[in-house]
Amino acid sequence: MIYNVPYIAVVALILIGLYAVIFKRNLIKIVIGITLIECGVNLFLITLAFRQDSIAPIYRGTGSRLMSLPVPHALTLTSIVIGVAVLALMLSLVIHIYRHYGTLDVRKIGREEE
Amino acid sequence: MNIIDDIFLLHSPALIVAIPLLGAFLTPLISKINDKIRNGFVIFIVLFTSAIVFLLANDIYSESGKIHTYVFGGSAALTQGGFAIRILFEVDGLNIFMAIIATILAIAGVIYSWAFMKENTGLDKYYTLYLLMIAGMFGMILTGDMFNFFVFLEITSIASCALIAFWTNKGTAVDAGFKYIVISAIGALFILFAVALLYGQYNALNMAVIASKIQFSFLDKIALVLLISGLAMKAGIVPMHMWLPDAYGRAPSSVTLILIGVTQASLYGALRMIFTVYGGKLTTTINQVGEVNIDLNLLLGIIIVGLALLTIFIGVLMALKENNFKRMIAFAAVAEIGYMILAIGAALTTVFSTTDTTTGIMALKGGVFHILNDALDVGLLFLVAGAIYYATKETSLNRLGGLARNMKYTTIFFLIGLLAVSGMPPMNGFASKLIIYESTYQVNPILSIIAILCSILLLAVFVKVFHSAFLGPKLPKFENVKEVPKSMLFAMGIIACIIIFIGLFPDLVVNNIVQPAVNALTNHSNYIANVIGGI
Q1: What is the ipTM of this complex?
Q2: Is B225 on the interface with A (CB under 8 A)?
Q3: CB spacing of B171 vs A78 below 8 angstroms
Q4: What percent of chain B stands above pLDDT 70?
Q5: Shortest CA distance to B437 belongs to which of B421, B425, B453?
Q6: Measuring CA to CA, which of A34, B134, B287, B485 is 20 to 30 A from B372?
């Protein structure tokens, strides 16, 4: 049971993130929602790599102890880097939107006549 | 000749991605020298990439069913201890077909950008992002690795989001960029989650290896749903289409052209996932109702056909009521995506039947052929809309009129695009839509009736646009409007010539380019054997 806790956390994080993206009207909260989904997916990758009693795959001289899988760690690192880029881009767009409209309410932006 | 074979052809899949990527980061440096040199450099990079694409295409088409596998890390072993550890690019008929589309769009887009974006500042960044977007698109198309696909998807999303919001002085453009990044970030995370699910079960990220091991367990079903919904978000299929009119309509037209390519690349991803990764399990029986077996391909096909009809309907109806030139074309683009997935869904329901596979193969042919035609038709219309915006600074149809007197070449190009997109002979849209109508008629007549009806409505939409923008009396405020610069006309001319060529010789294109792509889709064991055989 205790080993299922991370998976429950993954599902909870993703669902909370989706809830925030779909129902929240503040742009910052939408950005937070996306970050939460990303955290959930990253946690899932890390959990996949874990084996019972395993050590991090960077120690070499530990004899025959089990190592956790290195590939998901590499994937997670890549995914974190990409996530930071997306987050930075989204926040910079939020800044621009705030400058234009003076609000972060999704109901009040991008509605003017073109 | 030997050098070309040894270096360029052998490493071509890597070079196609590496050259634009490298060029992208060299562009800011070269812009320091001179604007003209930068423009020349960018087109040189794109043309060089295209040359390699065509070299590779020549090699792929030289014998049927040939697959070019490129393993990163050279001659090192593909597997170690039973794990497929190498990243590889695998290029078959479908990949190269998409790469050719991307090439045409990239060349036209860069040439168009020269004059279209000339008045803007920050052009070094513009071209950097432009090349980055092209590199990401090629990466998505050519890769044979699930995680790699995700990475390239994100590269493309980030670059295209920044370009959609390029006109940051307009609030609406930034808003469209934000919508796009929200949808594509969530879509990409869904895909990553699905990749993780597959990795957790099969210890592999390679598409071919996963395809050979896939069991279709409960987790695989979840992964399939996540993959399709994630890619459908990026492709703009109806319940997830709301970003598309904003992004297409508010981005600079030259960016929209590449965005169309990115959308098609996502659609390609969905095709690859369904037909190759899950290809062996498509005939699995999911449920049994009485005597009838409900197979996965039937269920998936029916769902996709339903989404397709919704996409076509909503796209056309929204286009009818829209008053903004570019948004109207964007809704027409939504409808066109509907035609592709209609054909693909219809093909899914029939292509694996034991008695008659010709209908399915034909539907698939129509769908794949329409990917090419849609990219060209909608792309041309967007370029024309951009030309009108460039000349008049106006996008609302209520305020346009009488432009045919001042912009005769643009009018001709719009007419070509109009006929092509609404499926009138002798343009290319007719060729592929006819195949779609014929094959869907055999699946269910109602499908083709709806498809034809919506195509007629699309014609009505564009005739209305043609009338209100180009015909009518000359408006006094457009007295001094001149024809757009030559490079823009040239870019539109390239696409228009290809449209007419395909329209006149559809057989040539179907037999030589589309058929290998369809074969690659239906024969997934060949794709697997190419990698597994090497292990």
Answers
A1: 0.95
A2: no
A3: no
A4: 97
A5: B453
A6: B485
